[in-house]
Write a structure and sequence with these properties.
The structure is a single chain. By secondary structure, the protein is an alpha/beta fold. The chain has a single domain, classed as Formyl transferase, N-terminal domain (Rossmann fold). The chain is 38% helix and 21% strand. It has six helices and seven strands. Helix 1 runs parallel beside helix 6. It starts with a strand and ends with a helix. 38% of the residues are buried. The structure holds 5-O-phosphono-beta-D-ribofuranosylamine (GRF). The site of 5-O-phosphono-beta-D-ribofuranosylamine has 12 residues, from helix 1, strand 5 and helix 6.
C-alpha cells in the first residue's frame, strides 16, 4: 500500500478545486488522503458537498471571532486545534479567502499550498481574473504555490497559461481558468506529497 499523507482542504466557497482534489485522492495510488474539509464561512456550499461525500467537515465561522481581541489569532488557534486533532500533515487552500498570519504559517513550513487564478507574479490578489481582463492581457492562467506570509508570493510549483480571447468576459475567463486549475492542483498535490514522503523515508 502506498503511504498517503493526511491532508486538510480549506475553502470559503463553491470548492470546485476541492472536488478535483477529493476525486484525485480516491485513486488507489494517489499519495494523499483527505482527512478533513474546513470552511471559514457558513455560506461555503462546498462544505455541503464534502459532507455528502462522507468526508469530515468543520465550519470555523470567522465572523464569530470578529468582536474578540486578537480575532485573527483566536480563529487560527481554533484552526490549528482542528488540524492537530485530525493529524493533518499538509494543508491545501482551495478558494480560501482569508489571509493567514505569520504565526500560523510558521507552524506549517512548506506545508501549505494554494492555487491562484493568474500566472503569478502577475495579477496577485482577490480580483486576479478581472485585473487580467482590465489590463487587456493576451493571456493569463493559474499557478500553484507554497504559501508564505506575503500574499501570493510563495515559491511557484506549477503554472498553466490560458489565452484571453477578445470575446472573453469575466465569467467565460473564470470558467476557462478553473478548468486548468482542476488539472494542475491534483498534479501539484501529488508532486508535493511525493516530495514530503521521500524526505521522511
Ligand atoms: C479559484 O479560482 C482559485 O484559484 C481561487 O479561488 C477560486 C476558487 O474556486 N483561489 P473554487 O471554490 O475552487 O471553485
Amino acid at each position: 500500500m502506498t503511504k498517503k499523507l493526511n491532508i486538510a482542504i480549506l475553502i470559503s466557497g463553491t470548492g470546485s478545486n476541492m472536488q478535483a482534489l477529493v476525486k484525485a485522492c480516491k485513486l488507489p495510488d494517489f499519495p494523499a488522503n483527505v482527512v478533513v474539509v474546513i470552511a471559514n464561512k457558513s455560506t461555503a456550499t462546498g462544505l455541503t458537498w464534502a459532507k455528502e461525500q462522507g468526508l469530515n467537515t468543520v465550519l470555523i465561522d470567522s465572523t464569530k471571532f470578529a468582536l474578540q481581541k486578537n480575532s485573527r489569532l483566536a480563529f487560527e488557534q481554533e484552526l490549528q486545534n482542528v488540524l492537530q486533532n485530525f493529524k493533518v500533515e499538509l494543508i491545501c487552500l482551495a478558494g480560501f479567502m482569508r489571509l493567514l498570519t505569520g504565526w500560523f504559517i510558521e507552524q506549517w513550513p512548506q506545508k501549505i499550498i494554494n492555487i491562484h487564478p493568474s500566472l503569478l507574479p502577475n495579477f496577485k490578489g482577490a480580483n486576479a481574473v478581472f485585473d487580467a481582463l482590465q489590463a487587456k492581457a493576451s493571456q493569463t492562467g493559474c499557478t500553484t504555490h507554497f504559501v508564505v506570509e506575503e500574499m501570493d508570493a510563495g515559491p511557484i510549483i506549477l503554472q498553466q497559461s490560458v489565452p484571453i480571447d477578445k470575446n472573453d468576459n469575466l465569467e467565460s475567463l473564470k470558467a476557462k481558468i478553473l478548468q486548468q486549475e482542476h488539472q494542475i492542483y491534483p498534479e501539484t498535490l501529488k508532486i508535493v506529497c511525493n516530495q514530503i514522503l521521500a524526505n521522511i523515508k
